[in-house]
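Title: Prediction job returns without error message
Component: structure pipeline
Severity: low
Priority: P3
Assignee: unassigned

Description:
Job completed but the reporter wants confirmation the result is attached to the right record. Sequence as submitted:
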Amino acid sequence: MTQTATLIQTREILQHQLQLLWQQPDLASCLPPVMLWGPPGVGKSTVIRELCKELQIGFIDVRLAQREPVDLRGLPVPDGDQVRWLLSSEWPRNPNSKGIILFDELTAADRTLQVAAYEFILDRRLGELYQVPDGWLICAAGNRSEDRAVAMTFSSALANRFCHLELAPDLEEWVRWAASRALDPLVSAFLRFRPQAFFSMSGNLERGWPSPRSWERVAHLLQHRQQLSWDALALMVHGLVGEGAATEFLGFARWAEQLPDIPALLRGELLFEPPGRADQRFALCAALAYHLWRAKDAAEQQLFLEHFFRIGLALSSDFATLAMMDAMEGQDEAEQMQRAEAIFCHPRFEAWSNLHGQVLARAQEACFTSSTSNLQKGEQLPQPSESLRHI
């Protein structure tokens, strides 16, 4: 059974390879390039792009299927009785530069193009013409033949030089990522309510189908819908995630619309009564965490925190913990620390912890465990605990 990696584990491996390159440049020819496998839309290229952005290093995205062999080695130009090669300007020249070169959709390239890339990927050079600077890690990504995507046979000679990682979609990891990026909370709430809708390749793959990438686009759509009518919004959601998942999501969204105004709740302008439906409680918790840090000034921020705790004390432990876990997510470690400090130092945190602390501790332990262990291929996506099944 194939071992699979989460995006967090993938980031850890890539950072490890980069640090080795930077600390010991003489290892550049020894470290294997990394090949990411997985179905479309699970974040193979995104994890590399975001890591480069976070580390403030270079990123070069090479789509080999859109190239010709001459694009890699360069263009031959006559020079008297010799031939000079004009290399592509995209290859890094600065010997002190750092970054990642990603050969994306490598499996979509035919064998001729794969052969043309051998020397660059495996030996980090193009003959005597060009040498990849030591600070650059070479990676590749591609779809598997069972994904019904464009996937050519992978050369055994090329495959044997890579470190292969198979990525699997992970719902809770995606939800934490979405919270850190401030994506519309309605999508995360729905996916926690209906985890089976997170990823499925069982429908018509020539149209929209549910994947981490398509749900991200739904979240962006909700944030920028402006004057888009409900019917037009519904058509776009269907076009992104397919009929089945879209129908369920839009029904969930209709019930979520009946929730009270969340910023007004956090300002204490409305009395709070826990929703009776489980789908509304999921939507409420995601919305509370989303709006908590969007106060207009420090005074309103303290007001929001005060009523966030008041609402949490009125919720069951499972749902209060969901809201708390999401509230502590941030774009980076510094923001997460800042938010955690504001929460843990609040006068009402002790009362909240006395009521819900044990569930929070179990949730944090489960989160840590899931981020440090491999999912097995074919394993079902995480399901809500029995205590969350109030339907």
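Comment from assignee: result matches the submitted record. The longest strand covers residues 136-142.
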